[in-house]
Design goal:
With about 190 residues, this protein is an alpha/beta fold. It is about 45% helix and about 15% strand.
Length: about 190
């Protein structure tokens, strides 16, 4: 089952994100919506002649989904969103993606387990892991899960909140390093 948001539901999501922007907060995890404001005028819309990537975002936070989706779509990419690892794997099995954004901490199947399943099926797919957990400031704190994920097969990582230019640079770096990525292939 391939779920694609209708233009109406995306508009409702964008209105919801705008409300959070006005309030200056996200009640789920304090993810900064500065990116959405930045997207409105600072990312050039791609026109013909540019490679378009088919990108899957797997993150349980709707605010993060909307932010990343807006940045990537404004840059000309095709974006599909899943709210957890299980839904992400279903979409992964039914479509071809050039790149995957994967949150590490999600209910159900977390990002590391999702990445393990994807690596078995498609070892070369570029994966960018994202997380809002802080880096370990000392030996008694939790491990640095972003660093751990890159050692387990992610090609890049971004700590939330991230700047749109950092996100786009990570995408560009992943796509230029993959010979068949960015082909704009869409199936499913």
């Amino acid at each position: 089952m391939h779920m694609v948001a209708s233009p109406e539901s995306r508009e409702a999501d964008d209105v919801s994100a705008a409300k959070c922007l006005q309030d200056g907060r996200n009640p789920r995890n304090n993810f900064a919506f500065e990116a959405v404001i930045w997207v409105a005028g600072n990312i050039p819309v791609r026109s013909g002649g540019f490679d378009v990537a088919n990108i899957l975002i797997v993150d349980d936070d709707p605010a993060v989904q909307i932010t990343i989706r807006l940045i990537l779509e404004r840059a000309g990419h095709h974006v599909t969103v899943a709210s957890d690892g299980y839904k992400g794997l279903v979409l992964f099995e039914t479509s071809r993606f050039d790149l995957l954004f994967l949150d590490i901490f999600m209910p159900g199947m977390d990002g590391l387990e999702t990445m393990r399943h994807i690596r078995v099926r498609q070892p070369a797919l570029p994966i960018i892991v994202i997380s809002g957990r802080s880096a370990a400031p000392d030996a008694y704190a939790e491990p640095d899960f972003l660093k751990m994920a890159t050692k387990l097969g992610a090609v890049a990582s971004l700590r939330k909140p991230f700047r749109p230019d950092a996100l786009l640079a990570a995408v560009h770096g992943c796509l230029i390093s993959q010979p068949d990525a960015g082909s704009g292939s869409r199936t499913g």
